[in-house]
Amino acid sequence: MTDTGARTRPAATGRAARDLLAEAAALLGRARAVREDHTRAVDAVRAVLDPLLSSLVDRELTAIPVSRLKDVTEGRLRLTALEQAGFATVGQVHGTARHELRLIPGVGAHTADQALAAAGQIADAVRETVSVRIDVDAPDDPATALVVALHRLVEAGPDARRAVEAARRLAERLDPLTAAAAPAGSRLRMLFTGKESRTRALDAVAALRAALAEAAEQELPLLFGQVSVDLLRAPESAPGAWVDFELRSAEYYSLLAELSGGGPDRDAAEGFLPAGIADRVRALRLDDSRLRVSLRGYQSFGARFALAQKRVVIGDEMGLGKTVQAIAALAHLAARGESHFLVVCPASVLINWSREIRSRSTLRALPVHGAERLDAFAEWLAGGGVALTTFDALRTLPDDVASTVAPAMLVVDEAHFVKNPATRRSRAVASWAERADHVLFLTGTPMENRVEEFRSLVRQLRPDLADAVSTTHGAAGSQAFRRAVAPAYLRRNQVDVLAELPALVHVDEWEEFSAGDLEAYREAVASGQFMRMRRAAYTVPATSAKLERLRELVDEARDNGLKVVVFSYFREVLATVGEALGPEALGPVSGSVPAARRQELVDTFSAVDGHAVLLSQIQAGGTGLNMQAASVVILCEPQIKPTLEHQAVARAHRMGQVRTVQVHRLLAADSVDQRMVDLLTRKDRLFDAYARRSDLAEAAPDAVDVSDADIARRIVEEEQLRLARPE
């Protein structure tokens, strides 16, 4: 033992130790630098944000009567002198200096201090409730400065937060080790060091070497360097920052809520869960190392709820990001070493799941459906990843693999599809649910209105809880129901988390052509008719993938009492949609309908209490009409003129709209839709940003849009060539 120790010591002292200490110092320097760079970026945002928040607080305080100061001091503050001096609101007191208050007859030092302290307490409480709203249609100087300052942090992305946290942990670990290992850098110093100190130094050198090896394995030097580069970039131009804000406003608002300390009421954002369950969920640290997106607070809580409670239903209202919460839970488990995951969903959203997983995480998405599903399933069994399959395809997969592979998490989207336990799809889901350690059902349908459906769903997750739930719980109201089913159910409404949401949420709904869609589309391409290609997805209503997704969106909006406007360029498409939706669909508003009748349709739509659907040609409904009663907009196809879409959405998303507006654009993969999106995305975005804000663009879309004929000709030619190639 002694000989072995003697042989290893020289390598742990002198030059080798100095090199190790130098490496540690360099890494610590990078860690400190990235934290300092991040602090500067955050301070730049706060420098703009704090005055905006103070202005909002002051505005709120001007509406609070001065008598409330007495409530804060439990009646101890005498207000007579202040009121006689003309102080009517808390804002007036809060904005007055102490020495000025003391100049008022009857107001001494004690009263002035009490009044200012009470006003300060109210201001602090108000500050927790206010939130900055960024209006893209009124970009004043303070808002522009804020968007530009936020851009640097948004551009750095989730890696910035990850780097800062890793740098903090690294410093806590390496600082004491480098201090303890310092004597080992000099053999002469080690000769005159006591045995105990020498042993400590050698142990510290060994621990330091292990820590540096671990940091290298985690690629921390690369992470710190890249994030510092991102944080030190020159500020984005104002137009560029505004364009970026419109493209990913959710990430800006997420950062804004985090930095302002504002946001929704915590109890509401956590679904009014009992304290014990909420505390357990909060205690779970979400590993986001395999995510490519920043989560909002309520989304992080939802992912942790799924992980902590293991077998649950997340029933958030549509538009709140249930998919990204599920992906965050999958990514956490993958970061902890799990390899196999299974997502079951309707065919209409399978492509969206694939795109979302790839864009928002580093997880491998593997579609398991269609003619090659068994081969894809075998590939998943062998290599892992996130298998994506449909309810119908799930029934055809071999069910004897439990002894080989059990998914670490089963996610079932649109879980109300399996509410009837007697159906084959429900039995297939139940079979897989028995094998999975974690099971997450997603549905936008409020379960408190459908207690029997909830019982059926939860019986697959928590049979004991299902038996304990009765119709009385639903009749007692949403909060009473949620408390009763809290171990397995989380729901948040838009109003619960509105402070963290952008006012406008865009969702591209990618669909895969059905066999009937594809045949109609191929015929349209062969004929070279661009407009026919654009509406081919609705040619066979019985099997139309777009129409199926549209119905699902309308159904979910109905369940949540939301109004929907459906836009299309084509009257034939609106007629098909109208037949599919039946009597509930009003309209269509079209160019052939007199102006007075159009307004009458909009008024009828707005007057309906709760859910309603209005159909409109995008050219007719895009100008002049106010559809702000709607909070869901569905675009049946992409438009050649981006300004046409913008104007149509603006009919619903405008001043006076009190709910978040969700815009769902229905797109068919590998089609004219994809070619249009690709072509229009390649346009100069900065020019488009300037043009869209001009009066000219609002009055004359043709002034800034590319030529219809050019786009049509290019797309027809590209599609004819693509479909002519052998598969």
TrEMBL record:
Family annotation (SMART domains): DEXDc, HELICc
GO molecular function, one term: helicase activity
Keywords for this protein: ATP-binding, Helicase, Hydrolase, Nucleotide-binding
A Pfam family assignment: Helicase_C
Residues of the Helicase ATP-binding domain: 303-464
Record's keyword annotation contains Magnesium: no
PROSITE patterns (alphabetical): HELICASE_ATP_BIND_1, HELICASE_CTER
Protein's recorded name: DEAD/DEAH box helicase
Gene3D superfamilies named in the record: P-loop containing nucleotide triphosphate hydrolases (3.40.50.300), Tandem AAA-ATPase domain (3.40.50.10810)
The Helicase C-terminal domain, residue ranges: 549-712
InterPro entries tied to this protein: Helicase_ATP-bd, Helicase_C-like, P-loop_NTPase, SNF2-like_sf, SNF2/RAD54-like_C, SNF2_N
